[in-house]
Amino acid sequence: MARKRELSCETRQSILVLRNEGYSMREIAKKLKISYNGVYYSLQRTAQTGSNQSRKRSGRPCCTTEQEDKYIRVSSLRNRRLTGPQLAASLNSTRKTPVSTSTVKRRLRDAGLQGRVAKKKPYLRLANKRKRLIWAKEHRHWTEEDWKKVLWTDESKFEVFGSHRRTFVRCRTTEKMLEECLTPSVKQGGGNVMVWGCFGAGKVGDLFRVKGVLNKEGYHSILQRHAIPCGQRLIGASFILQQDNNPKHTSKLCKNYLEKQAAGILSVMEWPAQSPDLNPIELLWEQLYRMVRKKRPCSQTNLWEGLLEVWGEISPDYLNKLTARMPKVCNAVIAANGGFFDESKV
């Protein structure tokens, strides 16, 4: 026999209102398109209980005790990498009747512990956290105008086909091998394009294609031909150059060159190591990736042309949002005591 649908509280209230207005139970059933018995028992229960709310159900008895639920929760918190089957096996070793993995997973969900793919982040030593904390405290009171004086720079690599991101599709069981349900891949990602880029004051600077391996001589050339000219063009005199601690960035050749250029032209921001999450240009790379994917590049040349095209389409409003969030980033790093923070909440 098919399971009958329970009447909602709104429907029960409608039944009571219509009954008080003088409608018969058959008229109410016809008007609300429900059964006569549904109207009858609803009015009967309301008369007995004085309420149109559903009765509290006892439900199926829980197969685990409160102590066992606590054991599951605490075990998972002590070792975040324990799987459902491992937790179930550990619990069943002390029980006469075993519980299923599904039961253990339900207890974890009830405790607010959801399974998810662990995010990959650079390893932070204690010294790294200390430097990140110092940097955040030094810059927490910077205004939006202060942040607009920074020229944000970085390198990024874009692959023609390959991607480390997971692609989700919806398909039937028999459609898993349909072309539109597959993610194409080729060896070495079908080639890649390495770029250097920068932005500041709500505007993008040059996007330079790096051919081959970028060494200190190559980066020195980028500073001369792109970074400093872009800083002066976008921001003006006395701009602040941001760069990470890559060895080619901190080489003697590049450091000596920047020291000579520093007087009245620029200053170099002291940047904490292992901190790509602090650099807003990383979000710009993500946006650039999404935009260029829509063009479906099929070769390195095609990819580079697409990157140049979408680079020019980046809106000033988006760039201003990236710099406007920097005070929140500083506060988040301080709250995390120099550790990583939830970037989606900043």
Automatic annotation (TrEMBL):
Residues 71-141 form the Transposase Tc1-like domain. Residues 150-298 form the Tc1-like transposase DDE domain. InterPro entries: Homeodomain-like_sf, RNaseH_sf, Tc1-like_DDE_dom, Transposase_5, Transposase_Tc1-like, WH-like_DNA-bd_sf. PANTHER family: SI:DKEY-77F5.3, TRANSPOSABLE ELEMENT-RELATED. This is Transposase. It comes from Cirrhinus mrigala (Mrigala).
